[in-house]
Amino acid sequence: MDNKKITLSDGSGGKSTHNLIKNFILKKLGNPILNRMDDSAVLNPNSLISNPLISKLVFTTDSYVIKPIFFPGGDIGKLCICGTVNDLSVMGAKPLYISLSAIIEDGLEIEKLEKIVSSIAETSKKAGVQIVCGDTKVVEKGAADEIFITTSGIGVIDKKLSISGHNAVTGDIIIISGTIADHGIAVLNARQELGFKGKLESDVAPLNNLIEKMLKAGEIHVMRDPTRGGLATTLNEITEQSNTGIEIYENKIPIKKPVKSACDILGLDPLYVANEGKVIAIVQEKDAQKILSAMKKHPLGKNAEIIGKVISKPKDVLLKTKIGGSRILQMLESDQLPRIC
Question: CB of 105 within 8 A of CB of 240?
């Protein structure tokens, strides 16, 4: 590593790599487990499952290739931690440990890498998770686009909980934690420099604290974070898993005016645009108001709304429009916006 850019020698496995990890990455992400620099993290299972109510581990993994790597509201570092934390949290799990693997393009400015690692450290601390193992590779210029990151996460789950896309039943109420399409539009605006006015900012955030309060408020059957494919595709996945139908009301779905305007100009349906800090909860009808109230008391749920219900037929996602009509929302065939996460 020279003073300003990552070079191929930083990924050679030799002294340069050792110095990069020890003096740069560990300096910001270090903890007693990671600092050992062994080939694997040794985790004590008793420390994970010491609570008699906890009997299961939850494990997830994802890769992040977003372009640009810095965008209004976040960056690839914040995104990778939030994505893994949220994937664990929507299963009802308490996220604990994360592994992190970075593929860095030769020539990436040190200043950019430092911002990303700082963002990872800050977001991990906020979410209450630890980075316990990882890997760093440097590849030739053109073999990657600045930096790609893969994260895997482990959490623990209360043995009484059963939250799954298969659990929606007729009569359940559907709640969303806030405005839709913020992330996808913010990234597109930053990538294309479209110059849209108004506050177009990604919603990327760790949802574990909000979800913890939701779980205490009532019985939740399904939770999902509507990332790629947006709200409509996520609800389609749930109807397929649960063999039910879903009815949602257009006038109840929260969306910011600048985001709606941008979607209208670009010809994008906000129902299919990605979110990175929202949760969909499908809950027992009797608990819906209690869960909604708990969500609204949290900063990440202040714009939460009940947007629909689970129906027996048709086994589709049905949108009741503002003008009194209805249309079936199909699953998105392919991404409207590639490389948004």
Answer: no
Rounded distance between C-alpha atoms, residue 212 and residue 223, angstroms: 12
d(CA 147, CA 66): 9
Three-class DSSP labels, 17-40: HHHHHHHHHHHHHCCCCHHHCCCC
CB atoms within 10 A of CB 285: 12
Could you read off the pLDDT of 54-111 as tens digits, one per residue? 678 999 999 999 999 999 999 999 999 999 999 999 999 999 999 999 999 999 999 9
* Residue 16 parent element (H or E): helix 15-20
H or E element that contains 132: strand 130-139
Give start and end residues of each alpha helix (H) in 157-256.
Answer: 182-192, 208-217, 230-242
Q: Report how far residue 20's alpha carbon sits from residue 114's, in angstroms, rounded to the nearest whole number.
A: 11
Q: At a CB cut-off of 8 Å and minimum separation 6, what does 117 contact?
A: 24, 25, 28, 29, 77
- Has this prediction a pTM greater than 0.85? yes
295 touches 213 (CB < 8 A) = yes
Kind plus residue range of the DSSP H or E element containing 276? none
Q: Give the pLDDT of residue 50.
A: 66
Whole-Å CA distances, 193 to 11, 26, 196, 203, 204: 33, 35, 8, 19, 20
- With left for phi above 0 and alpha for psi between -120 and 50, is residue 188 left, alpha or beta? alpha
Length of the chain: 341
**Residue 212 CA, distance from chain mean position:** 16
